[in-house]
Specification:
Elements (H helix, E strand, L loop, with lengths): L7 H6 L2 H21 L5 H11 L7 H11 L2 H13 L12 H37 L4 E6 L2 E7 H26 L1 E2 L13 H11 L2 E2 L10 H28 L6 E2 L19 H14 L2 H6 L12 H28 L1 E2 L1 H8 L8 H10 L4 H17 L6 H6 L2 H4 L4 H6 L10 H9 L1
Parallel strand pairs: 3-4
Antiparallel strand pairs: 1-2, 5-6
């Protein structure tokens, strides 16, 4: 992932040095377990850990040079360790395969990445909750098909986003538990050359659960679900970003991204204030979702294992998590500083001559004895006049002047149906469902 869209803590998880340190811990903990079982000398394990406690620098260049010759990354790493430790290093990797190391290490990295993403979601949820309560009763127009429908509140829009990201948090927590499995089962997963107790020991030390049955690799349905979950979260990011982008359009301008002093919107037009952050989030969401299909395709490996998944995961592991980490942090910043314009919301809501109250009149006419078809006809014929006047006419005035309508409803009864507060009466109920 390019540095522009990367944050240090997530990037560190995927660094070569961190990867090799995880590999060492897996190998060394396995060595401890084998020493306890009498498979290897205890002094070998002691010597390996003694060297590690000196906090040696990982010589990545040397490991790369060895791999250039061996064409095998795990062998290159073990060869470098042997150069540092000496003869005792020959007991490392007894009965293990490279997949035992690679898959278990990837599980550690994905678990750590998920931990950061869960923290990101917590911070976003805090901001959304605060701003939802801030605008709990700020009336704005609800739109369906992009067209004015009926009034809502801006707080309800934010509460919806909160509920969506709260679900994302639940799904990611579940996916992080499912991905955090350890496999130290040897060739084709039969434990023929390594005791299952070694796997249990490594799993406990690395903070993982034991993979119930591996086939030399951890089954990739776990990884597919993990990356699919990241894709869903990215889509939720895009949904909220798209809402902000629409609200910032000049014709709407009900909310907009914070525009900092000295910020420039266009190289050519000095007046521009563009929704660049939420547009960026839309693009980043596409990149996270791009990892989902390859992760799904990784599930179908040949027999007990192949490595067609390996190159894919070297890309999507870092790229998807680093990108989503950045996107969640950016979205949190956008929502924290979002500029909200209640007066513009009211102005927009009232622009079309009261059309947004048409359903209440329709229902009142049916309650007064009109068939639904006739009630719809009476309201629509007046509503279309308002629509075609571009809001210059008033639906309330037209209905009061319609003899067929006033034969069923008095002017006061009609006027009562244009009360904005009526639409907001259940806001507390909805907030109670969302926030408890």
């Amino acid at each position: 992932m390019i540095p522009r869209y990367a944050r240090p803590a997530m990037t560190a998880i995927w660094s070569a040095e961190n990867r090799y340190r995880i590999w060492f811990e897996i190998e060394a903990h396995a060595l401890d377990a084998m020493a306890e079982l009498g498979v290897v000398p205890r002094e070998a394990a002691a010597k390996v850990w003694e060297w590690w406690r000196t906090e040696p620098a990982i010589d990545i260049a040397r490991i790369d040079a060895i791999e250039a010759e061996t064409k095998h990354d795990v062998i290159a790493f073990l060869t470098w360790v042997a150069e540092q430790v000496g003869p005792e290093a020959r007991f490392l990797h007894q009965g293990m395969t490279s997949s035992d190391v690679l898959d278990t290490a990837l599980a550690v990295q994905l678990k750590a990445a998920a931990g950061l993403l869960l923290e990101d979601l917590d911070q976003l949820l805090d901001v959304l909750k605060r701003r939802a309560y801030e605008h709990k009763l700020t009336p704005t127009i609800g739109r369906s098909h992009g067209i004015h429908a009926e009034p809502v509140t801006f707080g309800l829009k934010l509460a919806q986003a909160y509920a969506e990201f709260d679900r994302c948090h639940t799904w990611l927590l579940s996916a992080s538990l499912d991905i955090a499995t350890c496999a130290i089962s040897g060739a084709v997963g039969t434990f023929a050359n390594i005791d299952p107790r070694v796997e249990a020991h490594v799993a406990e030390r690395m903070g993982l659960s034991v993979e119930p049955i591996s086939t030399q690799v951890i089954p990739r349905d776990r990884h597919a679900m993990f990356f699919a979950t990241l894709g869903v979260i990215a889509s939720s990011v895009e949904r909220l970003a798209t809402e902000v982008r629409h609200l910032q359009r000049t014709e709407v301008l009900e909310a907009e991204e914070y525009f900092a002093p000295g910020q420039k919107g266009s190289s050519a037009m000095p007046h521009k204030r563009n929704p660049i952050l939420t547009e960026n989030l839309t693009g980043l969401a596409r990149m996270v979702r791009a990892a989902v299909t390859p992760a799904l395709e990784n599930v179908a490996l040949w027999h007990e294992r192949d490595i067609s998944h390996s190159s894919v995961e070297r890309y999507i592991g870092p790229d998807a998590t680093i990108t989503l980490d950045f996107a969640l942090a950016r979205l949190t910043g956008v929502m924290d500083k979002l500029l909200v314009y209640p007066e513009r919301m009211l102005k927009n809501m009232n622009r079309m001559g009261g059309l947004i109250h048409s359903q209440r009149v329709l229902l009142a006419l049916t309650q007064a004895g009109a068939s639904r078809e006739n009630a719809y006809r009476l309201v629509q014929r007046n509503a279309m006049k308002v629509w075609e006047s571009d809001g210059a006419l008033s639906l309330l005035d037209l209905l009061k002047g319609d003899a067929e309508v006033t034969a069923l409803l008095s002017p006061d009864q009609i006027e009562e149906k244009f009360d904005l507060d009526y639409h907001l009466k259940q806001v507390d109920v909805i907030f109670g469902r969302v926030f408890g």
